[in-house]
Amino acid sequence: MSRPGTGPRAGAIVTTHAGLDADAAVEALYAAHWRRLVRLSVLLVRDVGTAEEIVQDAFVAMHGRWSHLHDPDKALAYLRQAVVNRSRSALRHRRVVDRHARREAGLTLLTAPDATQGATDHARREVVLDALRALPRRQREVLALRYYLELSETEIADTLGISAGAVKSHASRGAAALRTQLAAHQEDLR
User: Fold this and answer.
1) Smallest Cα–Cα separation from 88: which of 41, 27, 147?
2) C-alpha 177: how far from its chain's center?
3) What domains are defined for the chain?
4) pLDDT tens-place string over residues 17-48
5) Angle at the Cα of 183 from the Cα atoms of 181 and 189, rounded to 5 degrees
6) Which of 34, 58, 97, 98 is 20 to 30 Å from the Cα of 11, by its Cα?
7) CA-to-CA distance for 65 and 60, rounded, in angstroms?
8) With the C-alpha atoms ordered 29, 86, 78, 6, is the resulting torsion angle positive or negative?
């Protein structure tokens, strides 16, 4: 069994988009990758509706700029990068809105526990997502791209615009921080 990001990826679709018009190329990319891109964004923004909007906007932007792509076969990498960048922007916007709302109300926003959170699997997933969200942005992005999309270090580096060494460093630190946070949560349950 190969390590994530080192072997062939399950479900990877190798397609050439060179020579296709924008409509056909974007339609093929949408059919093959929309769901995975939404899931990537959900890992970053923790909201399905926002994630779907982010991915949809990335596809619309790529369609509009299709004729300007230097290498149409790198369209998926462009989409991944656009989704990560737009997710970052959505998080920044959310922080500004939350800060303004707290200031206006003079209250600290507290989130109520989800009443439907009875299932153990759902609770575990929430704990892991909370731990992931508590990581610094770059570590969270690297771990999401590496373990969810199973991208190689080179693909992650290209997507985030950082070096492969920085990818290794962020992945190592992020995984260590997750282990610590999840171990602390386990101790709290005992």
Assistant:
1) 41
2) 18
3) 12-109 (no CATH), 111-190 (1.10.10.10)
4) 555 788 898 999 999 999 999 999 999 998 99
5) 105
6) 58
7) 9
8) negative
